[in-house]
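sorry for the late reply, my laptop died twice this morning and i had to redo everyting from scratch. anyway the thing you sent over, i finally got around to it. pasting the sequence first so we're on the same page, its 152 residues, then the predicted structure underneath. double check i copied it right bc i was rushing
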Amino acid sequence: MEDQTQQEQASPAVQKRVQDSFDQQGLMTHLGARLAHIGPGRVHIELPARPEVTQQHGYVHAGATSAIADSAGGYAALTLLSEDAEVLTVEYKINLLAPAAGDRLEAIGTVLKSGRTLTVRQLEVYGVQDGGERKLVANGQQTLIRVNRPAE
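ok and here's the structure:
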């Protein structure tokens, strides 16, 4: 049975806020990543496997794998915060469990605990084949700090 949190969608206002922020990230644009799911406390980011994001053996580079995991965790936290709040990564740890192979990678950030100042998230990255086969290639944990949104 699929986890209910995978199906639940964030409100349209939260989805727009996350998408607008994501669209401003030069690195995610450069990598070719896209938001695949925005739910309360849970965000999925997909990265197509293509030569520009691989390392010398043809697997998706650990830097790209880590970058989408970091962003998925950050946006998962942002879905639970007020409009005047933003997040910054304090630390994260990634375990690379298998070569990042597949037609695309899917990073999933899930909030484990959302506090007033710090939020802790679980990070998972899967290698996904177009036929649906999924393999966990990385997992980790991330801590974010809540900061006030900069004045525009």
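Strands lie at 34-39, 42-48, 85-96, 104-114, 118-128, 134-148.
thats about all i looked at so far, will dig more tmrw
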